[in-house]
Amino acid sequence: MESYKIYSEVTSGSGAGRPLMVKRTFAKEITLVKAVGRGRFGEVWMAKWRGGFVAVKIFYSIEEASWRRETEIYETTLMRHENILGYIASDIMGSQSVTQLYLVTDYHEFGSLYDYLQGQYCDKFDMIRLALSAASGLAYLHAEIVGKQGKPAIAHRDIKSRNILVKRDKTCCIGDLGLAVRYDSEKDTVDIAPNKRVGTKRYMAPEVLNDTLNTAKFEDIKRADVYSFGLVLWEICICSVINVEHHLPYWDKVPQDPGFEIMKEVVVLQNTRPPIYDVWIRDAHMRVIGQVLSECWHQSAPARLTALRIKKNLAKLDIEMKKSQPII
Ligand code: ADP
Ligand code: MG
Ligand code: MG
After folding, report:
1. Which residues surround ligand 3, an ion (CB under 5 A)?
2. Pick from 5, 97, 148, 288: CA 20 to 30 A from residue 312's CA?
3. Consecutive sets of 10 residues in the chain, 328 residues long: mean pLDDT of each?
């Protein structure tokens, strides 16, 4: 679906940042159907719009800055990519007393990768499809496209299976761009002052947990994404292990909603990572994915693969797997 430029007339939003001009008609065409997700800033609904379905992320009005920021990221030039959640529009809904902020995107009925993987058995081919498509999304996000109509490099800063969606064709797209930051390579600056320890603690890289990430170096912010991505790859792989349920990384080491201290203890001090299973080592293809994921979550950030390298390694494996598949 094409995205709509609706910031043209009528009213301006209040609150922080530049005034956002919003035409108050788009949201009125939308009928909310059912709630499908809940996050930090509000709710996500499946909704009807012009004969099809869309997803509407509704922000509480006190979260206007978050809504504005996520909108701004989605409206970055060249943000459309098959492995990035497709943005449609943002709008303000409601009267002066009750305001709701809408961020409208493509709707994906399988929901998040986390939801999809629950109780799911994946064979090697399912796994590589999910892994390669998610890696392509991250590589695209991280890449700078040079030129007048170019795209800045973007770091996500909250990579996890709940922020990745599964499309009908069982490929992934990356969503929840609310914490993302953009890099201006000419000025060598990041577009907002990146407060250091944002994201989800369970998925935080060691250098984020112990507060040593140098946020002035954009390369380092991207490397923290790669660590989190390694954990997501592990979650995808675990669905190939018979008799093992889907687990969040460190499920056996930390409680639900863990704090900094316990995460630091496990990830930084003990240098623990989720288990690599025997079956991944015995199978030549699985071994490659196992190798990739362990090169993502290195304690030393510069030793990690780049998102582009992850994508290339997985693409090569995908080709090899297809070649080795018996022709029926
Ligand atoms: P938050 O910023 O509040 O975490 P997210 O954008 O991550 O919000 O969305 C929260 C949850 O809503 C996701 O984990 C997913 O389950 C569901 N969701 C989000 N976007 C979509 C979508 N486009 N299609 C289907 N489900 C979605
Ligand atoms: Mg989220
Ligand atoms: Mg968010």
Report:
1. 176, 178
2. 148
3. 40 36 70 91 92 95 92 96 96 81 96 93 93 98 94 98 98 97 95 84 97 94 98 94 87 97 98 93 93 97 98 98 81
Residue ranges of the chain that CATH labels 3.30.200.20? 26-106
Q: Determine the Cα–Cα distance for residues 169 and 133; give it in Å rounded to an integer.
A: 11
Residue 225 falls in the annotated catalytic set: no
State the Cα–Cα distance between residues 146 and 150, nearest whole angstrom: 5
Residues of the chain with CATH 1.10.510.10: 111-324
Q: Is the CB of 165 under 6 A from ligand 1?
A: yes
Q: Whose CA is nearest to atom 14 of ligand 1?
A: 162
**Hey, what CATH class is 26-106 in?**
alpha beta
| Whether domain 111-324 has CATH 1.10.510.10 | yes
Is there an atom of ligand 1 within 6 Å of 69 CB? no
Ligand 1 proximity of 175 Cβ (cutoff 6 Å): yes
Q: Which of 91, 106, 126, 158 is catalytic?
A: 158
Q: Which secondary structure element, helix H or strand E, spans residue 102, and what is its range?
A: strand 99-106
Is-contact 21 7, C-beta < 8 A? yes
Q: CB–CB of 202/254 below 8 Å?
A: yes
